[in-house]
Design goal:
Number of strands: 12
Bound molecules: flavin-adenine dinucleotide, iron/sulfur cluster
CATH class of one domain: Alpha Beta
Radius of gyration: 20 Å
Structural class: alpha+beta
CATH architecture of one domain: 2-Layer Sandwich
Shape: globular
Strand content: 15-25%
Low-confidence stretches: 341-350
Largest sheet: 5 strands, antiparallel
CATH superfamily of one domain: CO dehydrogenase flavoprotein, C-terminal domain
CATH topology of one domain: Enolase-like, domain 1
């Protein structure tokens, strides 16, 4: 049985208190929300904070504010179940509800939070292993070692971003608010979610460790359609080995703007910008979509560090991008609902 290492637990009641405690405890401290990612990582000694600042008692993080017509604000401490069962999310941001519903299992969704999902550690076959397993290969660059076993000549870590919510929220153009108390007074800043991420398997978050993610700002519902497709081995609870989110704005029959974002293929949610530009101004016909999916798949540079063979995952990036775009264009999907796996038929954002 794997045991947690010893740690002190602090239980703030407000966001400012949480940020203040973390700043006071310094680099040895870390926030914990649901703990569904952090606690297993601590058991495997991948992350070893000495102090945990628990966010469960911070009521302000568990609120939903605003209206879909002007934009909805999700508190980062809402559980995944609370997000995907919220009536406003289900009817106006159905693509998000679908992405969140695809995360792990009902039990984990009752505990894991949307903020924790966006700050999820990156994953790799050589890293998500027990301490003893990692020790037997002299560890790796991401933690305790010197070599990247995926790309031994590489000076960087290629562990992948495996959040299911992040690609969809980046595609929607969501933003996040961060709070810190560095230098005494409380300070907040808001940035596009896309800018929260770095393409670096170790330093994967573009926020300071002392910054608390407080809110996720969803844009106003204004005619876009969004959806998410996920590839994994077991439909019941696996992490994505590939996720593809899409958001299309239509002007009549033509696509005014497109956003296509892959998960599970890089250390950050990766936008397929060439394909986005290709689709703009075009009618999403069978041919256009096939071409767009082929262009999009170039952005999905699968490496040999997750489940399934690398070459097959690369091919599936094109297949899943095409299915995702066909769904948004209202075209039949080859293989019908079976192609969707256990998630069921397509849903739209607006
Ligand atoms: C068996 C299993 C299957 C899983 N399957 C999936 C899956 O299919 N898809 C998927 O996306 N995830 C999956 N997960 C991962 C995890 O359950 C979810 O991502 C969950 O949403 C994480 O949220 P949490 O609140 O538990 O995060 P925690 O474990 O509490 O925290 C995760 C990280 O975020 C930081 N953090 C948390 N909240 C904040 C905040 N407000 N501000 C700043 N930093 C913060 C923590 O310090 C930590 O670094 C799975 C986990 C398990 C154990
Ligand atoms: S990509 Fe390389 S450095 Fe990163 S976790 Fe995997 S083996 Fe380690």
């Amino acid at each position: 049985m794997m045991r947690l290492p010893p740690f002190r637990y602090r239980a703030p009641r407000t966001v400012t208190e949480a940020a203040r405690i973390l700043a006071g405890e310094g680099p040895q401290a870390q926030f914990v929300a649901g703990g569904t990612d952090l606690f297993p990582n601590m058991k495997r000694r991948q992350q070893t904070p000495k102090v945990l600042v628990g966010l469960r008692g911070v009521a302000d993080l568990r609120r939903t504010r605003g209206e879909p017509a002007s934009g909805l604000i999700l508190g980062s401490g809402l559980t995944l179940t609370e997000v995907c069962e919220d009536a406003r999310v289900r009817s106006h941001y159905a693509g998000l509800a679908r992405a969140v519903r695809s995360i792990s299992t009902p039990l984990l969704r009752n505990t894991g939070t949307i903020g924790g999902n966006l700050c999820l550690d990156t994953r790799c076959n050589y890293y998500n292993q027990t301490y003893e397993w990692r020790q037997a290969i002299s560890f790796c660059l991401k933690k305790d070692g010197n070599t990247c076993w995926v790309a031994p000549g590489s000076p960087r870590c290629w562990a992948v971003s495996s959040s299911d919510a992040a690609p969809l929220l980046v595609a929607l153009g969501a933003s996040v608010t961060l709070l810190s108390v560095a230098g005494g007074g409380a300070r907040t800043r808001t940035l596009p979610l896309e800018d929260l991420y770095r393409d670096d398997g170790i330093d994967y978050l573009g926020k300071r460790p002392d910054e608390l993610l407080t809110d996720i700002l969803l844009p106003a519902v204004n005619g876009w359609r969004a959806t998410y497709w996920k590839l994994r081995r077991r439909g019941a609870f696996d992490f994505p080995v590939l996720g593809v989110a899409g958001c299309l704005y239509f002007e009549g029959k033509r696509v005014r703007e497109a956003r296509i974002v892959f998960g599970g293929v890089a250390s950050h949610p990766r936008r397929a910008r060439e394909a986005e530009a290709f689709l703009a101004g075009k009618e999403p016909t069978e041919e256009t979509i096939r071409e767009a999916a082929s262009i999009a798949s170039r952005a999905a540079k699968a490496l040999d560090n997750t489940d399934f063979a690398m070459g097959w995952r690369k091919k599936m990036a094109q297949v899943y991008a095409e299915r995702m775009l066909r769904e948004l264009a209202g075209l039949p999907i080859p293989g019908g609902e079976l192609a969707q796996g256990p998630l069921g038929a397509g849903v739209y954002g607006a």
